[in-house]
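User: Could you check the structure of this?
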Amino acid sequence: MMTTQTISAHSADTTHFQHWSTQQLQAVETALSQWVGKDAPETLAQAMRYAVLDGGKRLRPLLVLASCHAVQGLETAALRAACAVELIHAYSLVHDDMPCMDNDVLRRGKPTVHVQFGQAGALLAGDALQALAFELITPDDGDIPPPMQARLCQLLSRAAGSQGMTGGQAIDLASVGKRLNQQELQHMHQLKTGALLQASVLMGAACGNTAPPALQGLTRYGAAIGLAFQVVDDILDVVADSATLGKTAGKDAANDKPTYVSLLGLEQARTYAQTLHQEAAQALHNSGLEENRTQLLHALADMVVQRAH
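Assistant: Sure, the predicted structure tokens are below.
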């Protein structure tokens, strides 16, 4: 069984973080390559693998693994959880890109799944990826103790369902052409984007015996990072091109969708992202976790916000 490799996160040294993240990304890619599409009918397997492999920042898996490192948790469980949350993310992108939703033709620098495999093929691939996510965190081989399996399933299902990502997407679709205030916009994005990012942090924490103060700190960190990610995404939709983004730029404005840039303006949106970055750092500081164990989470927060500059 594969295990993740960790290094000592004793400083915020960028070199250390880059070395750690390279190792973790290799472990995640190897695991996904082994698990995605295994024993599925050939065409379905091709669509599943096309949706998941060879693309994406893998921020959510890195958050799982960094959080597990912070609480000195079970690494074999964290690797499975990291892959599971990436599969939920991938399935959501497959379905969101379809003509009945956002109707996009470019994702991760290549044609979207429904363009490549047809709408029926994309729908089935998304369904299969969602199911596989829960299969990965409920193995029969003893890699994850049953109580931990239950907690991971609880966190992932809540983040992906009607009170999380799916609910946020429903609000998003209903908000096209409407003027939302900041509270309404924040609520939508806390569900649509933030819930799964926060769940990534909490799933990593669930791989260890996490004390209440630490869990509270990680919960607040995950909430701040989840919202910061969306604020930065809104900024990039305005200032970056499609080649840089790997998806269609300017789509939000073209579709008259409410964003942090349309609500606050570009500079205020950047300021808000920095405020959320500071909130994430403060949450880690207040968590009671060893500083050398939270440096990876600090570095991931830096990575999220620095995309806007």
